[in-house]
Amino acid sequence: MSQTIEVVIAPNGETRVETKGFAGNRCRAASEFIERALGTSTGERLKPEFYQSTQAQQHLQEES
User: What CA–CA distance (Å, rounded) separates 56 from 33?
Assistant: First the structure.
């Protein structure tokens, strides 16, 4: 699975940054520059992948 960062802008101007294909806290490091550029964060929702170790994610990718 490739790693992507998706930025969604709602009609009311609210933005959401969503990472895909990252394991552990690598998503935070990858999207940090975008989040900083967008301004103050109002919340965070962590996906199950955040709690996976990098090795577990790599193993899942190898099986695909």
Answer: 26
SS3 18: strand
The count of residues in the chain is 64
* Segment 46-62, tens digit of pLDDT: 888 888 765 555 555 55
Q: Which pTM was predicted?
A: 0.67
φ/ψ region of 61 (left if φ > 0, alpha if ψ in -120 to 50, else beta) reads alpha
Burial of 27 (0-12, 13-18, 19+ CB in 10 A): buried
User: Which residues on adjacent β-strands are paired with residue 16?
Assistant: 8
Helix, strand and coil content of the chain, in percent to the nearest 5, comes to 40, 20, 40
